[in-house]
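Hi V.,

You were right to ask for the full record rather than a summary. Here it is.
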Amino acid sequence: MNFKTNQLVKYYCWCYLIFIQLLVGADDFESRNTISFQLKLPHSFKVDFEQSLRLRGNKFSFRQTFTEAAISYKVSDDLKIFLPVRYAIFEDNIKKRISFGGTYKYKFNDYTIRYKSRYQRVYEKDEDLEDLIRNKFTIQYKSNKDIDPFFSYEIFNPFNSDVGEMNEYRLSFGADIDFPKKKSLKIYYTYKIEDLDKKNPEVLNIVGLSFGLN
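Predicted structure:
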């Protein structure tokens, strides 16, 4: 990693710390910290594992922790389908989630546009809790070989809702940083609004770190 890349890494880390300082005093603040790794299988299959811890508010109170495993299949260089399963532990309950979806990416010059769509079902105490359709659009710029800034927009639609009826949306920006020996770090900020069908939707400011062992 060259000198310029090191300076950029320090810049993004400082931005992360600044966001923490600005938001940590608010109750609508959440930090998300994740570690993940992947295992490549024959015939274009791959398995991803993820462990995450989420803390809420100015006292960094426990929000949830979850373990997720996902199997994916690379249909082509641009198209991939995936099936993730999540087991989440909250302070007072346990939720299980299963999803099915796919991603398609298109590259031009130094930019990559990625579209991700998934259907997900959440279970609580072995009962269906909610069915959602999630659609996410991401644009990423390859500034150099080690750091790729990105911006994304994601919407959540209840499965049986009318076309265009949203229950939640998220705006995110950050950067993917590659390190030697196939390690990576994602630093991001997300502005999230959920329960749009209610009189007072919930607003959440999220700052996250995701460390990958690939």
